[in-house]
Amino acid sequence: xxxxxxxxxxxxxxxxxxxxxxxxxxxxxxxxxxxxxxxxxxxxxxxxxxxxxxxxxxxxxxxxxxxxxxxxxxxxxxxxxxxxxxxxxxxxxxxxxxxxxxxxxxxxxxxxxxxxxxxxxxxxxxxxxxxxxxxxxxxxxxxxxxxxxxxxxxxxxxxxxxxxxxxxxxxxxxxxxxxxxxxxxxxxxxxxxxxxxxxxxxxxxxxxxxxxxxxxxxxxxxxxxxxxxxxxxxxxxxxxxxxxxxxxxxxxxxxxxxx
Length: 259
Known about the structure:
This protein is mainly alpha-helical. The chain has one domain. It contains 9 helices and 2 strands; from the N terminus they run ααααββααααα. It has a two-stranded antiparallel ribbon with strand order 1-2. β1 and β2 form a beta hairpin. The two termini are 39 Å apart.
């Protein structure tokens, strides 16, 4: 005989699970896209939370008043946001690489409206962003996010978070070093090609000063820059692998800083 009873204690535990799950979904990559309807996000969070409720061991909650339970809710919300943001900030690597490429090519003033974030972004950064998002879906990286947040209920029991600010700061500082190195690895072909173009233009200015190299150089840089992006776009999966690895590292670091 099946037991469908659901006590107030079960509801309290479920709401805490739902709080962490929903805050993670609104902050992690792919699921936090504004193209996804909010009703779908809420329903998806409720459904996954119900599945997690059936498999995660239920530890007794320690609180005495309503304010104590509210504190537990805030801790769960912060836990989900920190883990999601740990992976989300890795996507800024693509925007930084795109801005450097745009400045070298000469199209830094070109802005495109990104419907996923509803913000104006650079042209090259938007191309890289959509390419890596497509690779994320193909490689199943979005499934990794769901598995990771489900594992946190075992590693970090409900209401047992201990926020270690020093470890979080250390993880962010280490991320900044990888942030710069990965960004320059992505845009280094454009930087090198434009440097060569500038060297050639400098030689032509000395040999043929009557030619207006300023007006000619702009078109040459744009053509060369787009050609280099076109021929090096095949290396984007390798760059995406670095970014996905950094996402896993940051999520692991954020989880370890709360255990």
